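Example S7 (structure tokens).
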């Protein structure tokens, strides 16, 4: 099927309208008319080839997709035309490795297929993401959107939501846990909301003094300006878990002393070598850990969506037209977004 979207023609180039072919639905496929797509900082990393993984161009980014089912293949039983559904960062995996068998498709040992900037394992066609009219996805990788959630605000749950939910669950955050989130952007604001809803006492570490009022509204009990040594010293040995969402290389050594005994700092933002190097002294003297976490598996993503449905949690979004995507990237880079851009895909037809 012929589809209109927006694509980056080459590395770091502005996005422009782009027509491309998607496959006709296979027997296990769901065809979706896209209503909204969130704009993740990863979209910018992919367009710029920041992670050196040989990005594929033209690239249609977007992995926070909300839409309505238009057609289903013959073997699909979980969905029917008209259903409201979501698609996140993954559209396939090997289904049989030990990670896939545990429902942890994001850690597939044989390479999970990304929603864009990847190659479909069946037909070797490039995958194209959600900045487009329609998408075709195998039914296992399609999520149900709970009734009652605002659809614009639900789009970012598919990446920002699950990426912060998964470590909170894995490290057993619950009533009274002391949790901190580093960085108040798309992921960070979902981290505050989700940790608060799980019953935690929540602290935000931010470089940006202007964000205090918003942070409290979003669920932070305390705000610590990470560049202020006195404020950092006041939270020594306090946190059971720190979820670090900062997208670029930064000094983790500032945060390690604020972890309690046996506590963990989990990186979800930055991929790459640390600079400055990690000082291991706080690790050994407090049995502290530094860890990483990648999005979430399909079952956990559905669990997160249902949790958000029960608690009425959505993202705080700024809705944009697709024509404004390049400007949105510039603003995202300056942390000038409250707190997620979401593209209204009706604007594609304008
Ligand atoms: N692990 C995963 O599965 C996964 C999933 C999705 C996204 N990601 C990655 O997570 C990162 C965050 O994504 P996002 O969409 O939340 O980005 P975002 O909306 O741009 O937010 C990032 C926040 O980090 C802080 N920050 C930005 N630059 C910084 C710097 N140089 N030093 C210190 N703090 C800085 C800012 O918060 P303050 O102004 O409050 O300091 C900013 O609002 C990206 O790298 C993205 O690729 C990972
Ligand atoms: Zn993302
Ligand atoms: Zn696998």
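Recovered sequence:
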């Amino acid at each position: 099927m012929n589809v209109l979207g927006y694509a980056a023609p080459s590395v770091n180039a502005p996005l422009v309208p782009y027509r491309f072919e998607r496959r006709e639905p296979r027997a296990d496929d769901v065809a979706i008319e896209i209503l909204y797509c969130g704009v993740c900082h990863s979209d910018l990393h992919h367009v710029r080839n920041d992670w050196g993984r040989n990005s594929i161009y033209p690239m249609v980014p977007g992995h926070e997709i909300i839409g309505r089912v238009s057609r289903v293949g013959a073997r699909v039983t979980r969905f029917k035309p008209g259903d409201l559904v979501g698609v996140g960062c993954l559209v396939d995996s090997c289904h049989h490795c030990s990670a896939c068998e545990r429902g942890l498709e994001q850690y597939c040992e044989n390479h999970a297929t990304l929603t864009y900037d990847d190659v479909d394992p069946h037909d070797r066609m490039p995958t194209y993401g959600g900045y487009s009219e329609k998408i075709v996805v195998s039914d296992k990788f399609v999520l149900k959107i709970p009734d009652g959630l605002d659809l614009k605000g639900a789009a970012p749950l598919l990446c920002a939501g699950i990426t912060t939910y998964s470590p909170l669950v894995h490290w057993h955050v619950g009533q009274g846990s002391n949790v901190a989130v580093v960085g108040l952007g798309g992921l960070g604001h979902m981290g505050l909301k989700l940790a608060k809803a799980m019953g935690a006492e929540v602290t935000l570490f931010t470089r940006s003094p202007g964000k205090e009022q918003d942070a409290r509204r979003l669920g932070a009990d305390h705000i610590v300006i990470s560049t202020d040594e006195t404020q950092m010293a006041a939270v020594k040995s306090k946190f059971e878990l720190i979820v670090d969402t900062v997208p670029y290389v930064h000094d983790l050594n500032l945060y390690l002393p604020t972890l309690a005994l046996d506590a963990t700092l989990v990186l979800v933002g930055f991929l790459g070598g640390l600079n400055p190097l990690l000082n291991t002294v706080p690790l050994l003297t407090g049995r502290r850990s530094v860890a990483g976490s990648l999005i979430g598996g399909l079952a956990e993503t559905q669990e997160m969506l249902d949790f958000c449905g029960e608690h009425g949690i959505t993202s705080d979004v700024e809705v944009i037209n697709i024509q404004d995507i390049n400007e949105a990237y510039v603003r995202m880079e300056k942390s000038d977004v409250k707190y997620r851009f979401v593209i209204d895909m009706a604007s594609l037809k304008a």
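Notes on this example. DSSP finds ten helices and 19 strands in the chain.
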